[in-house]
Amino acid sequence: MTLVEQNQAQRKNRLYLILACIFITNAIIAEFGGVKMFSAEKLLGLLPANMNIFGSVVDFNMSVGVLIWPFVFILSDLMNEYFGKKGVRLISFITAGMIGYGFLIILGWTKMPPADFWLQLNGQDSQGRPFDIDYAYSTIFRQGLGIIVGSLTAFLVSQLVDAYVFHFFRKFTGHKHLWVRATGSTIVSQLIDSFVILIIAFYLLGNWSLEQVLKVGMVQYGYKVLLAILLTPLIYLAHYFIDLYLGREESKLIIEETNQKW
């Protein structure tokens, strides 16, 4: 292997490492922080939407983890483009493993006896009311059990579907119309991701009604699809800088090689 080929291989490996680190970080943050539900209307200072959909009143209530989840699928599309389904599948399984590992560690921490001084120092909230910080800590993190099970299932299934749909569209678009395969794969995969996690985490393993699952699922799916469309220029921008980093010819060869392997 020549020095030029070595440099190109290093650049490609470094690119995969950078994308993988950002991918894993965003996924883990979304998983562990996703236990909180927030109101988009309150965040924007608006009144509840009270939309009537299929005879049910729906407001814009979502998991906070949903806010950054579309970025995970943008990274997934970029990895699909340059590293193919094997690259996406590898990082998907690594991410799922790291999330599971992290949850087991934190679950063990919640079962450890709290220090007395820690309980005393945090025995009241900002308004002077009694506050059990150990109970709050355990409740928040243990609430994530159903979310972890549901989200890992939804994550792996949606990621694999995303990879297949992405390359399905690429058979027809070639190097052109990146937005078609990126947005198309996200629309299909996010439909699975949005509802599978809620059904498992909050309906089967939680205390939500099926009606509540459908309400939140529709809102979250709509948000993800809308953001996927709005963030399309970001994919092109990232594609542009990656091409500059790898070199346009080398970038084209990598994409062609990935497409042939598929």
Strand order of the largest sheet: 1-4
Question: Oligomerization state of this entry?
Answer: single chain
- Write the element-wise H/E pattern from the N-terminal end onward: HEHEEEHHHHHHHH
Largest sheet: 2 strands, antiparallel
- Radius of gyration, in Å, reads 21 Å
- H/I helix tally: 10
Average pLDDT level: 81
Give the overall shape, derived from the CA principal axes. Answer: globular
| Helix-strand category | mainly alpha
Unreliable residue runs = none
Roughly what percent helix? over 70%
| Strands, total number | 4
Terminal residue distance: 25 Å
Please tell me the total number of domains.
Answer: 1
Tell me the strand percentage band. Answer: under 5%
Question: What can you tell me about this protein's structure?
Answer:
The chain has 262 residues and is mainly alpha-helical. The protein has helices at residues 3-33, 40-43, 69-110, 116-121, 133-142, 144-173, 178-204, 210-230, 232-246, 248-261, and strands spanning 37-39, 51-53, 56-58, 61-63. It has one domain (3-261). The strands form two sheets. A two-stranded antiparallel sheet has the order 1-4. Strands 2-3 form a two-stranded antiparallel sheet.
